[in-house]
Amino acid sequence: xxxxxxxxxxxxxxxxxxxxxxxxxxxxxxxxxxxxxxxxxxxxxxxxxxxxxxxxxxxxxxxxxxxxxxxxxxxxxxxxxxxxxxxxxxxxxxxxxxxxxxxxxxxxxxxxxxxxxxxxxxxxxxxxxxxxxxxxxxxxxxxxxxxxxxxxxxxxxxxxxxxxxxxxxxxxxxxxxxxxxxxxxxxxxxxxxxxxxxxxxxxxxxxxxxxxxxxxxxxxxxxxxxxxxxxxxxxxxxxxxxxxxxxxxxxxxxxxxxxxxxxxxxxxxxxxxxxxxxxxxxxxxxxxxxxxxxxxxxxxxxxxxxxxxxxxxxxxxxxxxxxxxxxxxxxxxxxxxx
Length: 338
Known about the structure:
single chain, BTB domain-containing protein
């Protein structure tokens, strides 16, 4: 555990004759600093990845990068922040220790000291072995806040979620349908369905897996690699296979029944109606042979509707149209998720 006294950081900067951009917020109301009127640096403007990047070409100025969400005057809580987290790329995040500790069952990877240790060192700066974009997402999850305005990539979101257990944070309890992180992860499902499903399966995020599974109907299960199958796990892999198999079997059952014959007429008896039955059997066999779970209702209609062009009986045409409509309705209500 690396803990740095914030006073010593400022004293170092002062002794080096460097200029600090300052803001009228003390880091802690109970500061025991030996340096009079200590102030924290003013947060620079955010650039990318959720936290600002410090860059100053002057040899006489020192800019301190501070999160534009987790800074001393952010008003995220009625109490001021009492803890500073420093990412591996030197970005400060000012947080509330009681909020972080309430979300973690291991004192944030044992980085946050116990009460007795904390009393011995006020205004602590704790070094966290994460880059600022990932730490930014983790803290937004802890505070149950949306980080969508930072537009984090799915790789960043996935890395942050995968790091939660290491910090004693249970993804299953923190990522639920009502949370912003769930919505943000789900927004990536159309582009990265397998990745989102794998992430959900890994942490048993059932609701996220269910919502994502509909985007995997067109996925070729034969292309699954051993690595992906192992990452998904047997529980959710079985559900995905059963979704594909179940929809394919349901389509075959729906196609099996031919159009209902009408009462015989002088110009179209039961023998004549067998022409439609044979044509339906051929068309349905073609569709059943390639019964994909993602087949659309429009494709089914376009494949079966042309059968009417070869019918001269209006009653047969009406029976065919009714059967196609019924098939479309039946297929549209077949379950599309695990």
